[in-house]
Write a structure and sequence with these properties.
The chain is of the alpha/beta class and 417 residues long. The protein contains 14 helices and 12 strands. It folds into 2 domains: 270 residues, 3-Layer(aba) Sandwich (Aspartate Aminotransferase, domain 2), CATH 3.40.640; 134 residues, Aspartate Aminotransferase, domain 1 (Alpha-Beta Complex). Helix 7 links the parallel strand 4 and strand 5. The longest helix has 21 residues. Bound molecules: pyridoxal-5'-phosphate (PLP).
Length: 417
C-alpha cells in the first residue's frame, strides 16, 4: 500500500474490522470476554504453538484467539490502526498505561549490567522507573541535557566508561513542561556510533507530545516509539492507556514479554482508544490551531513574562531541530507569570472553563503549576536548569472556542492586582 493513500485519518473508521464478523455492526463491538472457545482440541494446540514460540506465523497472519491476556479482537483492531498511523511502523502494541508500555519495552531490551542513555528532563514516572526500579536489576542510567552536542555526549560516555554497556538510547522530545527539543537524528547517530556487529543500540522515543501527527521518530531512524495513549491518542480524559510501535520483529518481542507481565489493555480500554483514533487528526489539528491563537494572546498579555511554545525560538539550534523533526508546534504551551506562586495560584483558582488538573492532550483545556504539581519531585538543581520555577504554568489547549478560552483567562488575570 502507498504509505500515504488512503490517509491514516480515512482508515480509522474501518481498518482491521469487517462488519460481517459481527451481525453487520458498523462499529466494532466490545469483546468483553476473558477467554475464547476453540473449535477443536487440535485448533487449541495449534494456537498455543504460536504463543509458546514453537511455530511462527507467516507474515500478515494473526494467531487464533485464546485468552485476553494474549489477544482479543479489540486489542488487535486498535493495534492495527495505530500501526497505520505511526509512520515507519509495521506493528503496534497497546497497554493499559503509558508506564506499562515504557517499562515493558525497557525490560525486553535490557539486561543486568546495561545502561540506558537518556535525554533530560524525562517524564516523572519514566525517571522514577529508570532510577529506582531498573537499578534493582542492575540496570543503570545516564542522562544528558538539552543543548549537549553529539561530541559532548560521546565525551561524557567515554569519561564514565559506560560506552560498551549502553543498550538503549531513550529520548523524550519535546520535553515536559516547557517544550525543549532534543535532536532525534543526533540520538540515532550516537546509537549507531555505540553499536557493534554483536550489539545494536536501539533508540526509543517517547512521542506522546507531538505524535503521530506532527513528529515521526521512526522515519528519522528511531527503532521504537512509546506513547502515553492517555494523552492525545485517547484524547478525552476517560482512559489511561499506552502504546508502542516499531518493526514487526521488535513488536513481537515486546508482545511476548507483555503476554507474561500482563500489561495489555483490556477490551473496554482498547475499544475506547479505537473510538478516539477516529477523531485524532480533527482534534489535534483544532488543538494546535487554538494553541497558536492562545500563544499569541499570552505573549501580548502584560501579566505574562515569557511564553514557551514552538512557534517562536530564541535559540537558532532549537529552531533548526524544530524544522528538521516537527511539522507543527503542537498544543502544549507553558508560560512564566510576572510574580511567583501567589500570582499563579490566584490565576489558576479563578479560571472557570479551563480546568485545573494534570494530564494533557484532551478535548478540554487543562492547566496546572508544574513546580508544585507534576514536577514537585524533581530535584531543585534540575528544575532550575530546565526553567521550572514557581512562576511557570503549563497549559494543555483543548478544542473549545478560543474566544471563550481568552475570556476565561482575561477574567482570571484581572484578579491579580
Ligand atoms: C503521561 C506520560 C507518560 C506516562 O503515561 P501514563 O499513561 O500516565 O502511564 C509518559 N510519558 C509522557 C511524555 C507522558 O506525558
Amino acid at each position: 500500500m502507498n504509505a500515504n493513500i488512503p490517509h491514516p485519518e480515512s482508515l480509522m473508521m474501518t481498518h482491521g474490522y469487517n462488519p460481517e464478523w459481527s451481525e453487520g455492526s458498523v462499529k466494532t463491538p466490545i469483546f468483553q470476554t476473558s477467554t475464547f472457545v476453540f473449535k477443536t482440541a487440535e485448533e487449541g494446540k495449534k494456537f498455543f504453538e504460536v504463543v509458546t514460540g514453537k511455530r511462527t506465523l507467516p507474515e500478515g497472519e494473526s494467531n487464533g484467539l485464546i485468552y485476553s491476556r494474549f489477544n482479543n479482537p479489540n486489542l488487535e483492531i486498535v493495534e492495527s490502526r495505530l500501526a497505520v498511523y505511526e509512520k515507519g511502523s509495521e506493528d503496534a502494541c497497546v497497554f493499559e498505561s503509558g508506564m506499562a508500555a515504557i517499562s515493558t519495552v525497557m525490560l525486553e531490551f535490557m539486561r543486568p549490567g546495561d545502561f540506558v542513555l537518556h535525554s533530560n528532563p524525562l517524564y516523572g514516572g519514566t525517571d522514577t522507573f529508570f532510577k529506582n526500579i531498573l537499578t534493582r536489576y542492575h540496570i543503570h542510567s545516564q542522562g544528558f541535557m538539552p543543548g549537549d552536542t553529539e561530541e559532548r555526549i560521546m565525551e561524557q560516555i567515554e569519561n564514565t566508561g559506560i560506552k560498551d554497556k549502553i543498550s538503549i538510547l531513550f529520548v523524550e522530545t519535546p520535553a515536559n513542561p516547557n517544550n525543549i527539543l532534543i535532536d532525534i537524528e543526533m540520538c540515532v547517530r550516537i546509537a549507531k556510533r555505540l553499536s557493534t556487529s554483536e550489539k545494536k543500540v536501539i533508540v526509543v522515543a517517547d512521542n506522546t507530545y507531538l505524535g503521530p501527527i506532527w513528529q515521526s521518530p521512526l522515519e528519522l531512524g528511531a527503532d521504537i516509539c512509546v506513547y502515553s495513549a492517555t494523552k492525545y491518542l485517547g484524547g478525552h480524559s476517560d482512559i489511561v492507556a499506552g502504546a508502542c510501535m516499531g518493526s514487526r520483529a521488535m513488536m513481537a518481542r515486546v508482545k511476548k514479554l507483555r503476554n507474561n507481565l500482563g500489561g495489555m489493555s483490556g477490551p473496554h480500554t482498547a475499544w475506547l482508544l479505537t473510538r478516539s483514533l477516529e477523531t485524532l487528526k480533527l482534534r489535534m489539528d483544532r488543538q494546535c490551531e487554538n494553541a497558536k491563537v492562545l500563544a499569541k494572546y499570552l505573549r501580548s498579555h502584560p501579566k505574562v513574562e515569557k511564553v514557551y511554545y514552538l512557534d517562536q525560538f530564541e535559540d537558532p539550534e532549537q529552531e533548526r531541530i524544530y524544522k528538521s523533526q516537527c511539522s507543527e508546534p503542537g498544543a502544549m504551551i507553558s508560560f512564566d507569570m510576572k510574580g511567583g506562586e501567589a500570582e499563579c495560584f490566584l490565576f489558576l483558582n479563578n479560571l472557570k472553563l479551563i480546568k485545573l488538573a494534570v494530564s494533557l492532550g484532551s478535548t478540554e483545556s487543562l492547566i496546572q503549576h508544574p513546580y508544585s504539581m507534576t514536577h514537585a519531585g524533581v530535584p531543585e538543581n534540575i528544575k532550575a536548569q530546565i526553567n521550572v520555577t514557581e512562576k511557570l504554568i503549563r497549559f494543555s489547549v483543548g478544542v473549545e472556542n478560543t474566544a471563550d478560552l481568552i475570556l476565561d483567562m482575561n477574567e482570571a488575570f484581572s484578579k491579580i492586582s
